[in-house]
Amino acid sequence: MNKLKNSLREAIEAAGLRSGMTISFHHHLRNGDHVLNMVLEEAARMGIRDLTLQASSIFPVHAPLIGHIQSGVVTGIETCYLSGPVAEAVSHGLLQKPVLFRSHGGRAAAIAEGRVHIDIAFIAAPSADPAGNLNGVAGPAACGSLGYAFADARCADTVVAVTDNLVPYPLAPVSIDETQVDYVAKVDCIGDPRGIVSGTTSMTRDPVALRIADYAARAMAASGLMREGFSFQTGAGGASLAVTEYLKPLMRERGVTADFGMGGITGAMVELLEKGYIRQLLDVQCFDLKAVQSIRDSPNHIEIPAIRYAAPIKRGSAVDRLNCVVLGATEIDTDFNVNVHTDSSGGIIGGSGGHSDTAAGAALTLIVAPLFRARLPIVVDRAGCISTPGSTVDALVTQRGIAVHPRRADLREALLRAHLPVYDIHDLQAMATRVTGIPDAPRHGDRIVGLVEYRDGSVIDRIYQQL
Amino acid sequence: MLRSLLFIPGNNPAMLLNADIHGADGIILDLEDAVAIDQKDAARLLVRNAVRTMAYATPNLVIRVNPLDTDFCRADLETAVPLRPAFIMPTKVGSAEEVERLGAMIAQIEEAQGIPVGSTNLMPLLETARGIESAYSIACAPRVRALLLGAEDYTADLHAIRSKESGEIAYARGRVLNAARAAGIEAIDTPFTDVNDPEGLRADAAHARALGFTGKASISPRHIDDINRAFSPSESEVRYAQEVLLTIEEGRRLGKGAVSLRGKMIDKPIVDRARQTLETARALGMEVEG
Fold it and tell me: Of A428, A461, B89, B281, which is most buried with the most CB atoms under 10 A?
């Protein structure tokens, strides 16, 4: 059987793409991805209509999708994260059907358990051989881990690998193997590696973010979880990323090493691995090129599928073994519900990613955020959208102090003993609104443009059309 | 405590919003060099509203005003005095006579505002050759409770080349410190201006502390933790101070006239310093036995 197709068009035809199908994409090439746009362009040329996109993330680079929605090529989107022009257009009512948001773990579980059916998975493959063995660690568009693509490859009816780096059989190392891949399409370029690096993965110098990171690291230490063999996850961006810097001296003082660090992996986490602060990195996605290089070269930097990372399944996944996670927020309400889907005017600007998965799994979930952004308070009465329920959040860390969820009296005591500034969340809110005033709630239309599915499959919130 | 004083430009809303989160013992809201000539009035408004709105949780609020010989000085004082800062920081101060003239202007404002006359304290910035030479008389002038050395303007005035080794400001440091201590007031060291040299900062702060300075000013929030550490007693200093007091106690109990510790005679200055160290340590919340 000849799996190798000399063009994307040939591969799409061989895979039998028809109107009404669900097609999937992974987002490891992030804002440098070309594959989603190329596939939709071919589909449009072929006269295909009514496709549902099962894409793990949609970035600004995917702006041409707007045209495909307008022309009816795409009529449904299911994703974990939606940003840029498509997010803006969807917020204003571009799609007739609401976008269905899942968490990373929720998506993987839904695919594996058959609640989501994928007709054709298109897998951007930085390296592939003609039999369909794939990896993300070599090639001009190397992106490292292919974590989010595993479930798609395993469960889709048909799997098309799209590569710009075809190597002789057998490829090594292999992330997704030939037994799961039906066709390999050779194209000129699958993506721009510069787009893999998110601007939010460089270490901040913002003194406010650094103060927050300092408090968060000290809160982790004070919680008692920073013991020999502990584990943690920090995100990309601002204070969350900076926490990794502040953990170092605290870990040195205590003479402890972490058994694993997890998540989307940044260069900052790689440095902790290289310097011996962490024994292993479990990597579902590389956030920068230093992480890409490390996952290729280091035996202790391990690629994991999204299902192992974060899926809410009976046998458990790695998030259930996580001690501490540090996460961001666009806003948090006085019940500690966190919004990472919409901005202050109600427009879609992101999504859960692994936010709600790690919050549910970790023993300690810290939300780091400045008390105010420009003229807006971060603590609100009611989150504009509930991405992560407050029952899975332990504390909010701001530059002016830490608010602990009332069910964690033990944590509150521990932070006070460590001389950390602990406040009631209403007091933090008052500190912010004394300066900013209380903003009016954003007005929205009646149409639902987004449904937020929690990791257990229940719908926990709705996003309404922006006016 | 005045271990660290952080400069905050008076015309930067975002920095004013977070001026007091960096752990500095004091913040200096600046109406002078950080603010362009055409923004002086805006900065005054912003500083006034920031102080009133933010209710800064800093023990020492300092407001830096433009020099006496500029058109801005009086308006700056009219903004600053009613805000009741811990200190007003006059700039380019050259003589005690200037301080007295400032004091008279402040007294008028105090009176008009119903503020006890004479209750506004000054921390003059000495940053000219003339100011350094007049350090002692300035230190003795009414209202003056601390001196700050400003090395950047001073070395320009000297025609010196500013270096990290700081040999060119050794004289000024000694002179300011001696004047302040002779007058019984605090002495604050000049900022370390390289924001990307933490090693250099730590060495510079340790040196200033060893010379006897109370604390150090800073132009970067990222410098504050290191400065605070440098000007706080270390755990071994606290232990030694405790041993000194225990040894004295023991000697007194045994009726000894002179006592020694680790082969060194313990005299009054050593005891005084030990008490001072423990007092500072307690104020910082360090664990001190006894």
Answer: B89
pTM, full prediction: 0.91
Architecture of domain A4-195 in this structure: 3-Layer(aba) Sandwich (3.40)
Q: Do A399 and B53 touch (CB under 8 A)?
A: no
DSSP A276: T
Identify all chain B residues contacting A400, using CB atoms and an 8 Å cutoff. Answer: 21
A18-77 tens-digit pLDDT = 999 999 999 999 999 999 999 999 999 999 999 999 999 999 999 999 999 999 999 999
- Per-residue pLDDT at B179: 98
Return the DSSP state at A148. Answer: G
Tell if the CB–CB gap between B53 and A400 is shorter than 8 Å: no
Within A246-277, strands assigned E span: 258-265
Size of interface A-B (CB pairs under 8 A): 24
Domain span(s) for CATH 3.40.1080.10 in chain A: 4-195, 199-440
Given this structure, which CATH class describes domain A199-440? alpha beta
Amino acid of residue A456: D
